[in-house]
Specification:
Blueprint (H helix, E strand, L loop, with lengths): L3 H5 L30 E2 L4 E2 L1 H9 L3 H9 L11 H20 L1 H7 L1 E2 L18 H4 L7 H22 L1 H22 L4 E2 L3 H17 L5 H13 L9 H20 L6 H30 L1
Antiparallel strand pairs: 1-2, 3-4
Helix pairs in contact: 4-5, 4-7, 7-8, 7-9, 8-9, 8-11, 8-12, 9-11
């Protein structure tokens, strides 16, 4: 904050428009910038010169991604939805610490909440738990690891997809994880955002492949995390991981094939159809599995 430009400009006038006073500084070079010269960055704003330098430093894969997905200079790179999901999940985490198991019991997902007539114990039909289970975690480390993964992936993937697509991907991915639990292990309860996290990784893998980026890194990370889920001593719901990753990959394919503006209606229809198929799987296949276990 003590660069020569800043020292000479004690009255805070825009470096491009000397007649405009502003108290906003470029986060990279500390030049004073007025509202017309500000470009929203991941943290704060940057000036036009720093924006040009940022564009020149982009890799070929990043430039191609911008063209393919329609990201222009005015697109906001601030991952607002990512931060919002983390904030809401953190609030629920604090409630878990303050109120104890009552929060878990209120929000976790277990198959008996879809079929209360098939189970004893006073269960009631509560289908929203397919989604609310993403808000609760099995401990501080579980929460921190999931939110760290969400932040690392979301800050890159959300600006690429756009906010509503990113949110839909996360929610339907979480739904896919819960449905996989209901189908593959209907006797177990589950908590955590792992389904949504793995959906982000699955979508990133497909989209990266589609735009010609190097996907070996994300492929290795996805394989390692899926493999860890099969370590019995860790008590990890591998079913939710597989379900989330598969649904995320499918959504990534839908996004890649319906990215043109005139295909937006088709994209929405396909996403709604996918969510409906997932719910149908939970309501139709799960009872068959449950009866085979009884």
């Amino acid at each position: 904050m003590t660069s020569p430009d800043f020292t000479r400009n004690r009255e805070n006038f825009c470096y491009r428009h000397p007649d405009r006073q502003s108290f906003v500084l470029c986060q990279r070079c500390t030049r004073t910038v007025c509202a017309d010269c500000q470009t929203q960055a991941a943290v704060g704003v940057i000036c036009p010169e720093c924006m040009k330098a940022d564009r020149r430093s982009r890799t070929p894969a990043q430039r191609r991604a911008g063209r393919v997905w329609g990201m222009g200079a005015a697109s906001s790179s601030r991952p607002v939805v990512t931060f919002g999901i983390i904030a809401v999940t953190a609030v629920v985490g604090v409630l878990q610490l303050l109120l104890g198991p009552i929060v878990d019991r209120t929000l976790l997902f277990a198959t008996p909440y879809l079929f209360p007539d098939m189970f004893g114990g006073g269960f009631t039909f509560q289908p929203w738990r397919l989604i609310t289970a993403m808000l609760v975690h099995g401990g501080i480390m579980h929460f921190l690891l999931n939110m760290l993964a969400l932040w690392m992936i979301g800050r890159s993937l959300e600006p690429l997809l756009g906010r509503w697509r990113f949110l839909v991907l996360y929610l339907i991915g979480g739904l896919g994880g819960s449905v996989a639990m209901a189908v593959l292990d209907p006797g177990a309860a589950t908590v955590g955002a792992s389904g949504g996290i793995f959906a982000l990784m699955g979508a990133l893998l497909v989209i990266g492949r589609h735009i010609g980026a190097n996907i070996r890194g994300i492929l290795v990370i996805l394989a390692i995390n899926l493999g860890i889920g099969f370590v019995q001593t860790l008590n990890i719901a591998w079913q939710a991981h597989i379900g989330g990753a598969a649904v995320g990959a499918l959504i990534g394919f839908i996004f890649a094939r319906t990215r043109r503006p005139q295909q937006r209606t088709l994209q929405i229809v396909l996403l709604i159809a996918l969510a409906a198929v997932l719910v149908a799987l939970a309501l139709i296949v799960s009872p068959i599995v449950i009866r085979s276990m009884l």
